[in-house]
Automatic annotation (TrEMBL):
Annotated stretches, region: Disordered: 1-50, 230-264
Task performed by this protein: E3 ubiquitin-protein ligase that mediates monoubiquitination of histone H2B to form H2BK123ub1. H2BK123ub1 gives a specific tag for epigenetic transcriptional activation and is also a prerequisite for H3K4me and H3K79me formation.
Pfam families the record matches: BRE1, CC_Bre1, zf-C3HC4_3
SMART domains named in the record: RING
GO molecular function: ubiquitin protein ligase activity; zinc ion binding
Pathway linked to the protein: Protein modification; protein ubiquitination
Superkingdom per UniProt: Eukaryota
Keywords, alphabetical: Chromatin regulator, Coiled coil, Metal-binding, Nucleus, Transferase, Ubl conjugation pathway, Zinc, Zinc-finger
Main location: nucleus
Any coiled-coil regions, as ranges: 191-225, 279-362, 413-475, 623-650
Example GO BP: protein ubiquitination
Name this polypeptide is given: E3 ubiquitin protein ligase
InterPro entries: BRE1-like_CC, E3_ubiquit_lig_Bre1, Znf_RING, Znf_RING/FYVE/PHD, Znf_RING_CS
Length: 720
């Protein structure tokens, strides 16, 4: 398990303080120029100028110290981030290897399934993709899910095709083919493993090439810096800087003017000494590392020589090889015995299969003969059925003709009845007309001149005419009714005549078709009669064959009982062989599991050794960095001790001028009573907190030194 390192993140309050301290003393870009100074007249200068310069230099040194501390914090964070990055890189390599192994395992499974189809001659379609993954690294979850879905679709399609071919082509595999298939499967597995290793080595090669490019770039930069450090001009400038740093000051005014340059040269000297100490320490560490590398190279060369000089005899002498050889010989003996028994069983099975095929062919021939005879009988029965159906059709045609004739006669009788009723109506009408006409004739014969008639005669005449008119009115409906009936009967008769003509034409066409069918049926009947005769003859023969088949069936049943007994014996022997085979498979699986567990233990131990080596390398790097830091701290401690001794000497000498100068430098410039402990962020000047609070409460919110405005939020405590 890799150790998780927590980044040393500072607290929010300290971050806020550091941000406040890192704020520059000048707020705006227009005020980059230094603060205004009083112009010296006749060689004189203001008294407050050196104090202001000292305050500004002190603030600048303070901000530089804060920046330096923050940079150290950043360097510590960078070291922790580098360690975490290295651990994440190791994890990514492990996961990439895991994914490659999974893909190779799937490809091996599919190839082994395809090898089962070699006996049936079915070849599988090889995919167009390369035999190893082109790129396993993915950017985000969506691309990885897409990668898995594509791989899953390909695996499912290939597996379905392979299983379908397996279901369609199940055949026996010979022992030699099985051995060859096992060898091919082992070679394919080794090939997939080599492909996975090749992919990993390619990725490592790319990473190492990138690291080599970065190292060469750093080497070129370091070479340029070394050439610059070796130049004579740079050495002269360093000697001049050291001479200026060690040269004593002439007067107090010169010290105040060149204090900043001396401070810079002292800092440069301190840094130079720190760098030289770190370089010497790193050189010593480099020599130690080179010695260790040389020893490791010698050890590696000796181990390689031993590995190359190993012979087959060395392997043969090992206990593992002897045990494996004994197991292999036992397996070969068992396989030979199993092959012999399998050969005997195969010969017996082939003999039984031949007998079974002969018996099946005989049964099929007999069954075909019986079916032919039955088909001939069916043909005869079909001919009889066709003849019966033709007779039935003739009888149906006669009955339909009789029914049609009866319907026509019934219709003609009804028409005659209608004509008789119309005739009776006409007779009644004619009788009434005859009686009327007779009366009118008698009246015409008797009637005199109309003008000579009297009123009574005229009245009688009128009544007589009225009666004639009424009788005529009574005759009209009967005449009209008779006329309508005659018209209807005539129209119906005409329509019936046209319908009968059409029916006659249709019946003539149907009669011609029926005649053709009749002649065809007669021909079919003749052929069927001939077939019936032949089928009867065959039926007589088939009855004899059936009797013979019954005898054969009884004999076959006895033979089948004997074969079933032999089959049960063979099944028992096969079951015993299967149990022995399963035991052998279990032993082989145990051996494979042991080898896999040993390989897994070896891989785990190698991974543990790698992780320990990586952890030790990280610890060594940290130790190297800490040793360099210790050397730098020693140099700083020496300088601090020197400064302490100087200040002790100055304190023992009781130099009142320096004490007064330091006291005035530390006191507030407003009240001259309290020490400076509060800074203004806008300009960077220092005062005591009491004076600053008084000015804020009195609304005098301008700096007394530079007159720059400030607010309560611009006040920052420097120390307590």
């Amino acid at each position: 398990m890799p150790l998780t390192t927590t980044s040393a993140s500072p607290r929010p309050s300290t971050l806020a303080k550091m941000e406040d301290r890192k704020r520059p003393a000048i707020s705006s870009a227009d005020e980059i120029a230094p603060p205004s100074k009083r112009v010296a007249v006749n060689g004189s200068k203001a008294k407050d100028d050196p104090l202001d310069m000292k305050e500004e230099s002190w603030v600048e040194a303070y901000t530089k110290g804060a920046i330096y501390r923050q940079m150290q914090e950043y360097s510590r964070k960078a070291s922790t981030y580098e360690s975490r990055l290295e651990e994440l890189h190791k994890r990514s390599v492990h996961h990439d290897d895991h994914l490659r192994i999974i893909d190779a395992w799937w490809r091996q499974v599919l190839d082994e399934m395809e090898l089962l189809l070699t006996d049936s001659g079915v070849t599988s379609q090889t995919p167009s993709e390369p035999p190893y993954l082109s790129s396993v690294s993915f950017k985000d979850l969506h691309d990885f899910q897409k990668h898995l879905s594509e791989k899953g679709k390909g695996i499912k399609s290939r597996a379905e095709a392979i299983l379908a071919r397996l279901a369609s082509s199940r055949g026996s595999i010979k022992p030699d083919a099985a051995k060859l298939e096992s060898k091919v499967a082992g070679l394919l597995a080794a090939q997939k493993e080599y492909f996975a290793k090749l992919d990993r080595l390619k990725t490592e090669k790319d990473q190492l090439s990138e690291q080599l490019n970065a190292a060469t770039l750093r080497y070129f930069k370091a070479e340029k810096k070394l050439d610059r450090a070796k130049s004579s001009q740079v050495q002269k400038m360093e000697q001049q800087a050291f001479a200026n740093a060690t040269r004593p000051s002439a007067s107090g005014d010169v010290n105040t003017d060149s204090g900043e340059t001396n401070g810079n040269s002292g800092e440069l000297l301190l840094k130079y000494e720190e760098a030289t100490a770190a370089a010497t320490k790193q050189k010593e560490q480099l020599d130690v590392f080179l010695a260790e590398i040389k020893a490791l190279q010698d050890e590696n060369s000796t181990l390689k020589a031993k590995r190359d000089t190993l012979t087959d005899e060395d392997f043969i002498r090992t206990d593992v090889f002897k045990q494996f050889k004994n197991q292999n010989e036992d397996l070969i003996k068992r396989i030979n015995t199993l092959e012999a028994t399998n050969k005997q069983l195969r010969e017996e099975a082939e003999r039984l299969q031949a007998e079974r095929t002969a018996f099946r062919t005989m049964l099929e021939a007999d069954a075909n003969q019986v079916t032919q005879e039955l088909e001939s009988e069916i043909i005869l029965r079909d001919q009889d059925l066709a003849r019966v159906r033709s007779a039935r059709d003739e009888l149906l045609a006669e009955t339909t003709q009789h029914k049609a004739r009866l319907d026509q006669e019934r219709a003609s009788v009804e028409q005659v009845k209608a004509l008789a009723s119309a005739k009776e109506d006409r007779i009644t009408a004619l009788e009434s007309q005859l009686s009327r006409l007779q009366q009118s004739e008698t009246q015409q014969a008797v009637s005199p001149d109309i003008e000579a008639l009297t009123v009574e005669e005229l009245r009688l005449k009128y009544t007589k005419l009225q009666q004639d008119f009424d009788s005529i009115n009574m005759e009209l409906p009967a005449i009209e009714k008779a006329y309508k009936k005659m018209k209807e009967l005539a129209h119906r008769k005409a329509m019936d005549f046209s319908a009968t003509e059409e029916r006659m034409s249709i019946l003539i066409a149907e009669k011609s078709k029926a005649d053709q069918k009749y002649f065809a049926a007669r021909k079919d009947a003749d052929t069927r009669n001939n077939e019936i005769r032949s089928l009867r003859h065959q039926n007589s023969k088939s009855s004899e064959i059936i009797a013979q088949l019954k005898d054969l069936e009884s004999q076959n049943r006895v033979l089948l009982g004997n074969l079933e007994k032999q089959l049960t014996d063979l099944k028992q022997s096969n079951a015993s062989l299967m149990t022995e085979n399963k035991k052998m498979e279990v032993t082989s699986l145990d051996a494979v599991r042991r080898t896999e567990s040993l390989n897994k233990q070896v891989s785990d131990l190698s991974n543990l050794v790698k992780s320990k080596d990586a952890a030790s390398a990280v610890v060594r790097e940290r130790n190297v960095m800490q040793e360099t830091e210790v050397e730098k701290m020693k140099v700083r401690l020496e300088h601090a001790q020197k400064d302490r001794d100087n200040w002790k000497n100055k304190a023992l000498s009781n130099s009142s001028e320096e004490e007064e100068m330091l006291r005035t430098f530390a006191l507030c410039t407003i009240c001259r009573n309290n020490f400076k402990n509060t800074a203004l962020k806008t300009c960077g000047h220092l005062f005591c907190n009491q004076c600053v609070d008084d000015r804020i409460s009195n609304r005098m919110r301008k700096c007394p030194t530079c007159s720059r405005a400030f607010d309560k939020m611009d006040v920052m405590p420097v120390h307590h």
